[in-house]
Amino acid sequence: MSNSDGTGAPGNFIGPDVPFPGAESSVSSVGEESSFSPSDKVESNFRQGLRVFARNKLALISVYVLGLLVIACFIVPIFWRTNQTSLLQQIGVPQNQPPSLHHLLGTDVNGFDELGRILYGGKYSLTLGFLAGLITIVVGTLYGMISGFFGGIVDTIMMRLLDAMLSIPNLFLIIALVAVFGKSTPFLIIVIGMTGWFLTARLIRSDALVIKNLEYSQASLAMGASKLHVIRRHVFVNSMGNIVTVGTFSVADAIQLLSALGFLGLGIQLPATDWGTMLNEGTQELWNGYWWEVFPVSILFIVVIVCINFIGDAMRDIFEVRLRDR
Amino acid sequence: MLYYIGRRLLQGFFVLLLVLVFTFTLPYFLPHGALNAAYFNCAEHQTKACIDTFANTYGLNQPYFQRLWHYLWGVFIHFNLGLSFKDSPPQITGILRVYIPRTFFLALSAFILATVVAIPLGIYQAWRRNRPADYWFTGVTFMMYATPPFVLGFLMLDAFAIHTFHLPDSPPLGVHPWAMFTDPKGFILPVLTLTSLQIGSYSRYMRSNVIDVLVQDYIRTARAKGCSPRQILMRHTFRNAMTSIVTVLGVSIPGLLAGAVITESVFNYPGLGLIVVQAAQDFDTMVVLGVTVVVTVMAVLGNLIADISLVFINPRIRIMGTEK
Fold it and tell me: B18 with B10: CB under 8 angstroms?
């Protein structure tokens, strides 16, 4: 863990703490601006991780791109207002206009400004993806840790339940749930989150199984620590790598799942929208040659998914201690 | 071995039971409980007579446990999945007999094609890792993975069915299973759409697995004793990496079927996916249940086949219970 070679990048080189979904909540609270000076012999785990992350150029670019997109989706609409919510105001507005100076990316089938629509839909896509990913990771982690740590009959029952859940294709489950309980946005978040955690739980469980038998956990238990304490201080902390990595990927999965639901007409309902619903509306117009309703948003969608996956890959590299040079 | 298969099948049976009970209970949370379908079907004239008749016809008035018992008995003893509220003839078993081969054929051909393409691709990427070739292929597979299947499907339709080649925009629709083979060209676009979706995830798994194997000591030993790269890849790496990819392939079957839902609606090909979406919107709960049964059975069997084939791929794996 020591920064033995003096040639390594000095800490201030790492760059600012850029917000990116998935990792923000868990990592940035470690205190990045701590009192680091070149004389420090031991580099903190977090700093070392950042260094590995920063060396991955693709991931770094992805963080910037995502950060830019978040700013664009959440801040730009405050200054540059377009009507995106009132269908009533759209009466008489020309529809499906090609890009022009007035509408940079044209207008869509309801006459909404396409560029503004992308930003507006992005707000839903990103928020929903992030929240659903958060639910996924919280539920999956809790379930996996409890199952793995307690073992025995608890583990058996929980894992069989998980097997049952895993063998229902999750789109089928969501279709059934959405059909029964309706299509409100909070419910969509919960449904997507609650149907995504099965694989996460399995992964975290296998981590917990290993960690609970390691010497430090056993020693802690032998010294009289409560099970809760061991779970919190040892099992949770040591499976953090997997949790953060899987969390990042699950954000991307949630966004994709939401788009699939949007395509089936079960997603976010008009006048609100997300990228999946927009893509669905756009592709219906593809035959007419309205390319501006398909390509910008699909490129953006792909870029976001690819970026999140690159970041996830970089996360895995960070926590893969074997790959670190010391 | 037989003991193991039997135990897994028994386990699968309980999984199926659990899934069935869960899905069966779901409609009870609707506004009118099990009677929701009756209210939905009597939409124009919600008279007591209409609702009562409907409920009596389908036995919706019976107590929960009695219905559940009836249903489970029918499924497991008679392979009878109940009656649809909408379609005629209403026997769901008969309805699904038309749709299952379609989805199965679509999913299976995509699965085979994806495996055949993705496994060599993953190995190649791992072998040339962090070189330009790897970056290019990683980029392409990432794109395949990230593109929503319906966008890909519509773009392919636009390009290859309308502007060039003029491929059929929908696979042949016929009631008989062999109708699928009357116009094989119709399958090109849907299968390609579903395949490219799968290639993205399979080749990524394969790449990371092969990389994990390539850093092992025995690979270094093999290299040291003078094995050719080809030998290292085929004899040492491939077989070791197969273990994990086969598991992944087994687990991926639900995802494959979910992808089929989208593909079927893009290419307007009524298979399991399309009817389940329709049935869910019409509150035709028994059809949803029936499809869930079929899909769950497919997933459980796929998992089982994956686990069994592991034994043949990797002789180090001993199945629990077969050892003395």
Answer: no
